[in-house]
Amino acid sequence: MPISRSAATPRRRFLRASAALGAAALPAARATGAEPALEVPAWTRTPGEPVLWHAYGQPDAHEAHVVRRTRGTAVLPGAASSLTPLQNLHGIITPTGLVFERHHAGIPQIDPAQHRLVVHGLVQRPLILSMDDLVRFPAVSRIHFLECSGNTGVEWRGAASTSIQQSHGLLSCCEWTGVRLSTILQEVGVDPAAAWVLAEGADGAAMSRSIPIAKAWEDALLVYAQNGEMLRPEHGYPLRLFLPGWEGNASIKWLRRLKLGAAPFMTREETSKYTDSLPDGKARQFTFTMEAKSVITYPAVDHRLRGRGYYEISGLAWTGQGRVKRVDVSTDGGASWREARLEGPVLDRALTRFRADWQWDGGPAVLQSRVTDETGYVQPTGRQLIAQRGLNSLYHYNAIQSWKVATDGSIANAQV
Amino acid sequence: MPISRSAATPRRRFLRASAALGAAALPAARATGAEPALEVPAWTRTPGEPVLWHAYGQPDAHEAHVVRRTRGTAVLPGAASSLTPLQNLHGIITPTGLVFERHHAGIPQIDPAQHRLVVHGLVQRPLILSMDDLVRFPAVSRIHFLECSGNTGVEWRGAASTSIQQSHGLLSCCEWTGVRLSTILQEVGVDPAAAWVLAEGADGAAMSRSIPIAKAWEDALLVYAQNGEMLRPEHGYPLRLFLPGWEGNASIKWLRRLKLGAAPFMTREETSKYTDSLPDGKARQFTFTMEAKSVITYPAVDHRLRGRGYYEISGLAWTGQGRVKRVDVSTDGGASWREARLEGPVLDRALTRFRADWQWDGGPAVLQSRVTDETGYVQPTGRQLIAQRGLNSLYHYNAIQSWKVATDGSIANAQV
């Protein structure tokens, strides 16, 4: 084959090609030692695996490191979380097998034929629905992010994470399909005195949260499918509540009961947990909305740069208040900023992928991203966030994240 | 628990609620025989499975029937196809484990560290790229459908399929991430005489297609990720070509070589295969674009109606020419039509989910959908398609599909 390997080519061409984009040079193709022979490779010389090798497909064996991981050891194996490997992912859709988990009494094994949703309390016509009943109602599909309000919580105590999977991995984005809760509220007839809805799960914790009825009418969903297929067991099979833009904890999985009441039900998950202690000794309660946040997923603390030259900075931005409006990136720790490219579609309360060209000169650098959402809200610095909220919080940390690049290409988590 | 089961409630409420939508009644909740007790179910009384039961998640055991399936028996197990179970799916994203397959010599097992892409022929600077090189270039992510031009081909000979998985299952829609081919063309410098690009796979068939260079410049992608994670083996790991809106066969998997030339290379896959024989003995060649098509996925031939009353008709529409503009549905075999709801986002060359309310009166019905795309192209009837193309074709069947509902609720595939 008349090929002359031209290692210097990428640098020159990408330089020229990207000049119009304001970008800089791609480094020369890496000298990888022995170059594979250009003759036909071994795997072309033999028949491959048959069709339906897996009737339900699985990742390649070389990707076995791309898995959910826990954060330390839980006291109870069923009361813990697993995190999404953002450092290995692309685009905005999270593959369902890698969507994060947070359970309080493990994953129940539910027979969908036996599962029922009970709707009662301050309603005119209490109702019991089977899954067969539920799927008969008009459905909607929506792409939305899901984030635990404890995501990035370790950063309240300093730059504690050595992996973006550990710092930001309680975050995923899927296409969710189900019935509008408003459709079911119309079925049962809501008593005018009803102001809150208790949602209760069928897991061993009977996980329960109080939801303002306005959210139930506005956009709450009773979800049975995720990324096209039925929910997985760990995500609430066969039925979960889904509250777009709100903290994940409130989107009760394995949903078995909705009770309408005049006041919040003051469950454990909104009194001793999932509240935000403030410096003055008071606590914020029912802080459902996930405020705007962004993070650079490449290059991040998990990666190591392969020498100076061109890199595409890539990351994720999102807001529980609607759409991302713009993202700015800094490579000098916030001294200067420039606008990143937003990759469409930019959807309501979905992850948005941003990209920015970067020419690394080989010197120290600090990479940051800062999102502005359509309400005008700007992601705060860590100092701004702590000035407002103090250091007693566990939840709702959404500050700008800093990745500090050293001259050897290694990257550290550093609060600046 | 003070619940009185009110089986008649859904009918009345959904009637009232949906009146504004022009819809009709939901039937009474089905009498399922023994009603599960309303006390706390067994799975709530015991701790569930631990977090990271599966570090990479899997579907629930009750969904084991939702798998890819083949169409008959292949002469060679590696030269066959598997089909996506559209009858069980929701929304527009196809879960990667269920994305259809079509292989010509099986699925090669490729070491991504050893894989190379060679770009040569009528170029100024031939190039060999490793995967590490490729992922350094700027990337894009796009949601697009992928359809085999043989999809629905069995319908050329009459209503041959008794499952929508068999008739329409060579169709999927994913988020694809990779490098624009135009970026690589800029790197290598295209000779002005170059008009076609040969794309060759690293599988045992060395699958090859000729692509007009205009498509390479316009929107062709070198894809390495699908629905957020690296490609699966059966979808081209670690690298494939992706040609938005074009027949799937041309989006060469396991891509190892791109050769630029002045004329098409006349490979087997564009001479003896993937051409369309016409009534006059001539054949259409290089008919890449997948024309507009739609199909009702529920209720479809796979389903059985549970009695008269409300059903939401739901289906998929797509076009290789851009965006879906509108979908009309008929429940009387095309005698009358009404416009369906398109569920957003309606994306360029992506599946679009449509929905329409339907009140089944219990009598015979024939369900059809008809898409119009943004170019004004209208999906043809089977008769119109055959009048134009004759009956010698295997590929590019995109006629309106009919599902015939009998009074007992069973549904048949019927060409009308």
UniProtKB/TrEMBL annotation, chains A, B:
GO biological process terms, semicolon-separated: sulfur compound metabolic process
Domain Moybdenum cofactor oxidoreductase dimerisation: 286-401
Keywords on record: Metal-binding, Molybdenum, Oxidoreductase, Signal
Domain Oxidoreductase molybdopterin-binding: 104-264
Needed cofactors: Mo-molybdopterin
PANTHER family listed in its UniProt record: SULFITE OXIDASE, MITOCHONDRIAL (PTHR19372:SF7), SULFITE REDUCTASE (PTHR19372)
Identification of the protein by name: Sulfane dehydrogenase subunit SoxC
Species name: Pseudorhodoferax soli
